[in-house]
Design goal:
seven-stranded mixed sheet; globular
Length: about 240
Amino acid sequence: MFRPVEMSLAFLVIACSSGISSARTGSVEICFTPGGNRTSPVGTLMTEADPASLIEASGVAAVRLVNGWQGNHLHPFQTYYLRYQKARVAIPKRYTPMTFAEFYALPDLPEEYGQADWTTVRAYTERAVSVEGYIAGVRPSSAGDINAYLREHQQPRCVPDENRGAQIVTEVTRAFQSPKTGWSYRAFLDLCDRQTRVRFSGWLLHDFEHVQDVGDVQGSAWEIHPVTRIEVWDLTRHRWDDLR
């Protein structure tokens, strides 16, 4: 099971309100809503398993970040789950091909998740997909990851100014860069300059922190993140070749 080491024990409970029971394992304490199930292994779920499972198993009332861990303090539990998903290193066994229209038709979720939204997020982030298109921009992040923005059609040049809201965000995390692969900022910029057809595959991720950017700098708050496979179309041989 994947273990996000740097995030372990990153939460401490806000003082439980009167009438709300709690359970504590080590330095992790969870407040339970009335009627919540107290039989699940809270500490194990928090530090090793899918953190969203706490929502279903425990009926979490409140948690907060401690120890200076950076994140969205308005939505700390969502931030933890988001970082957990971004840090995945497992290679999917299969990918579901998606068109741009299908990608844009993924569930429209709010910045703040409700119970039904958590169910949707958990279901969709277990899916791995692939999208074909053209790189319209490349941007390295301060964390060392690389963002590659995909558009459905070829552009007159790399990084066009117009219609930035019609692109899918993909992100190559450091775990999938050199020396494991040859995926680099320069390699992506070359593909962007040449407007070569590419196919990016990886895990679906909903980045609630960019819901407000939809229609402005990206076409959806859903991303392919992390990217786990990249292919380039060979015009001469009419086939997809892996980008090594």
